[in-house]
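Worked example 3 (structure in, sequence out).
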């Protein structure tokens, strides 16, 4: 309350809190009263109302606005099962593949190459969110069928992007993990419909979204019935132009403190440059990510999207070799229960 708020104002605030269904815990000092709002549930509407109530100086949230995804809700880290794999478990999972599925030959060659080099899942966009409506928009249903073929040939689980709530059933039929891209992180209709899609969701951070907003979006999916959400840091937009995005590497330990959900890093979109991808991938292992999602193309110069940041198959093999000793240390850390970042 403001200093010297009147008794009538204090009593009115207490009444309002009770009307919202919460308990009142008030601390009365010399000339200043602090009123605690105690209870469970989303307190946002109550706080907004109190902000507008006479005599109130400010209404401050103490506990996190998200619930299911918070570490307060679940202390142990969650691991998410995908086709026999566990993301957030004892294995560092590398997901690799092209930005877009372009042809049968391209996706098969990539799938076989990345599987041989140690990737555990295949990525590839069939529905592509492109800045320009004149750019390649993806092979859509045809792309999904090609991903299924690649899965059959290699055994790799599939991660592909879903852009619209209209396509949820179609995409869920073909993929193991539903990717929500940066541009759709706050497509709330889509997030709600993923609550009942029956597949884990890979939720990428919006390019101008805070960590809190990312967690609120994850909360949408979980609150609508799907607890299997994997978070992904993919770089955010800043004033810096040397890289496509600015990799917020600190987001990974921050998320590991705030949420029990697994967190992976996308060093490809985070940098936009092939040469920078292995260094960022190393950073991801060291800082306690649960895995990586990396763009790889058999001939990046011919890629229809994101060629500049795509590793060649040889580049991917080299990166995986380079990562191996770091991944060994990562595994030791997990085995002894120590989380590199937490
Ligand atoms: C992608 O994974 O190809 C993609 C479009 O990523 P983002 O949504 O992070 O930009
Ligand atoms: Mn891409």
């Amino acid at each position: 309350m403001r200093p010297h708020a009147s008794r009538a104002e204090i009593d009115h605030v207490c009444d309002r809190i009770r009307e919202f269904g919460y308990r009142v815990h008030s601390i009365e000092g010399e000339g200043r009263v602090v009123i605690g709002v105690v209870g469970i549930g989303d307190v946002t509407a109550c706080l907004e109302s109190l902000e507008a109530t006479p005599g109130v100086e400010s209404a401050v949230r103490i506990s996190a606005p998200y619930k299911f995804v918070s570490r307060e809700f679940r202390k142990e880290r969650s691991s998410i099962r995908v086709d026999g794999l566990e993301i957030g478990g004892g294995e560092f999972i590398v997901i690799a593949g092209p930005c877009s599925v372009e042809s049968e030959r391209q996706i098969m060659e990539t799938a076989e190459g990345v599987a041989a080099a140690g990737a555990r899942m295949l990525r590839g966009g069939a529905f592509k969110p492109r800045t320009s409506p004149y750019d390649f928009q993806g092979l859509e249903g045809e792309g999904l069928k090609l991903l299924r073929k690649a899965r059959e040939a290699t055994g790799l689980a599939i991660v592909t992007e879903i852009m619209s709530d209209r396509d949820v059933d179609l995409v869920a039929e073909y993929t193991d993990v539903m990717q929500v891209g940066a541009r759709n992180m706050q497509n709330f209709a889509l997030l709600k419909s993923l609550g009942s899609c029956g597949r884990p969701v890979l939720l990428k951070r919006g390019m101008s979204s805070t960590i809190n907003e990312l967690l609120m979006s994850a909360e949408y999916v979980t609150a609508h019935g799907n607890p299997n959400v994997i978070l992904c840091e993919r770089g955010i937009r800043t004033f810096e132009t040397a890289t496509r995005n600015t990799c917020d590497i600190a987001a990974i330990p921050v998320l590991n403190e705030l949420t029990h959900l697994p967190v992976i890093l996308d060093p490809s979109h985070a940098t936009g440059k092939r040469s920078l991808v292995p260094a960022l991938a190393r950073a991801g292992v060291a800082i306690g990510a649960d895995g990586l999602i990396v763009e790889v193309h058999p001939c990046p110069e011919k890629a229809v999207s994101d060629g500049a940041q795509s590793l060649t198959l040889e580049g991917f093999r080299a990166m995986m070799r380079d990562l191996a000793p770091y991944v060994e240390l990562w595994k030791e850390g997990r085995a002894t229960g120590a989380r590199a970042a937490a």
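Notes: The two ends are 37 Å apart (CA to CA). Residues 313-335 form the longest helix (23 residues).
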